[in-house]
Amino acid sequence: MAPCRDAAKVAADGAEYSEVHETNEDRTGKGLMQQAANIAPGIVEVEEVEPTIRFA
Q: Model's pTM, two decimal places?
């Protein structure tokens, strides 16, 4: 599962995994694996470069 946009932005800002996980759980009701949290900054970067690409 990909991180929600808010969790991805928190991760891109350099937050610890626990904060990213909690943000995703608060917004979606689902936790987030460490691997998904680790790729979240890249998701934000791609979205900023190509805003027509959308992630959950």
A: 0.80
